[in-house]
């Protein structure tokens, strides 16, 4: 499958022949793809295929060899500390758990990056946090503690905090994890709205096929540390590579199983009655 520009516009990040190791074990095998500017790139693949490891390279948490990662054409493998710091200031990251500070109100959670990285007056911080809370639909919840929020609201609050410094590139790890399908779909919509409203580049790591096709401009399918396919959702959907087909269809099969039928089957297997088909 075509790797490179894919007609999605100019890349803000380019990954070239990136390999990654933990001890003697190779986790990523010479992977290459582009992250187009102002678009949503979704990185997907089964558990353990190396998505989080790739994310760690992209955000500079794991060192990258020269010639393997380029930010606007600059070789990140040659970045000095000051350049990494400058790059990280352009990023927002929403980790899987949302990672809100439980002892701080939602508003104070949002204020943390502003208090740490800027010298803004408290009155300005208040205005910025109010805008971000509004953007994620939590206007009324600034004074709540994280424990008083639902899972979906906590994700939204985490998202607001990840965006509070107006990042150019937002990395989101498993946005749907732990959410019911309706809440997950709402969060997907919010991500797409934010991309349009703020012109951000989004990189989303997910297992969720449905979510990936809902939000992606580009999908990168990984398997065992390699890229099986990278392209528009349409290109990935029509990809004939057998492993891509297996990945897409196995997930589709899982979704197609009706819960009631599944439970009846389980009961029948247990009672030795005739087992109904799915
Ligand atoms: N710190 C580490 N030390 C050693 N091995 C690691 C470490 N982190 C991850 N691995 C291994 O690297 C491989 C890829 O892990 P990674 O977390 O990148 O996969 P993933 O696709 O993000 O999985 P998941 O979807 O379950 O989060 C796995 O076999 C994992 O056991």
UniProtKB/TrEMBL annotation:
GO terms for molecular function: ATP binding; ATP hydrolysis activity. It comes from the Bacteria. PROSITE patterns: ABC_TRANSPORTER_1 (PS00211), ABC_TRANSPORTER_2 (PS50893). Keywords: ATP-binding, Nucleotide-binding, Transport. Residues 13-249 form the ABC transporter domain. SUPFAM superfamilies: P-loop containing nucleoside triphosphate hydrolases. PANTHER family: INTERMEMBRANE PHOSPHOLIPID TRANSPORT SYSTEM ATP-BINDING PROTEIN MLAF (PTHR43023:SF6), PROTEIN TRIGALACTOSYLDIACYLGLYCEROL 3, CHLOROPLASTIC (PTHR43023). This is Phospholipid/cholesterol/gamma-HCH transport system ATP-binding protein. It comes from Desulfosoma caldarium. The lineage of its organism: Bacteria, Pseudomonadati, Thermodesulfobacteriota, Syntrophobacteria, Syntrophobacterales.
């Amino acid at each position: 499958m075509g790797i490179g520009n894919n007609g999605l516009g100019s890349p803000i990040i380019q990954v070239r022949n990136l390999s990654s190791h933990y001890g003697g074990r190779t986790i990523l095998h010479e992977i290459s793809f582009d992250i187009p500017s102002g678009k949503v790139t979704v990185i997907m693949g089964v558990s353990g295929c190396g998505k989080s490891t790739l994310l760690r390279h992209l955000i500079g948490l794991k060192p990258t060899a020269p010639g393997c990662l380029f930010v606007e054409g600059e070789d990140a493998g040659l970045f000095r500390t000051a350049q990494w710091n400058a790059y990280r200031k352009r990023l927002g990251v929403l980790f899987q758990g949302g990672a809100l500070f439980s002892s701080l109100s939602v508003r104070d959670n949002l204020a943390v990056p502003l208090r740490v990285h800027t010298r803004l007056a408290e009155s300005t911080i208040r205005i910025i946090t109010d805008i971000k809370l509004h953007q994620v639909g939590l206007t009324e919840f600034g004074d709540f503690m994280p424990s008083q929020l639902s899972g979906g609201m906590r994700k939204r609050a985490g998202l607001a905090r990840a965006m509070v410094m107006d990042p150019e590139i937002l990395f989101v790890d498993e946005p749907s994890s732990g959410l019911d399908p309706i809440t997950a779909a709402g969060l997907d919509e919010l991500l797409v709205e934010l991309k349009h409203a703020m012109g951000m580049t989004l990189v989303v790591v997910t297992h969720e096929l449905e979510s990936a096709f809902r939000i992606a401009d580009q999908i990168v399918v990984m398997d065992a540390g390699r890229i099986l396919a990278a392209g528009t959702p349409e290109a990935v959907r029509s990809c004939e590579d057998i492993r891509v087909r297996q990945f897409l269809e196995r997930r589709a099969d899982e979704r197609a199983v009706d819960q009631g039928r599944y439970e009846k089957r389980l009961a029948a297997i247990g009672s030795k009655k005739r087992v109904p088909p799915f």
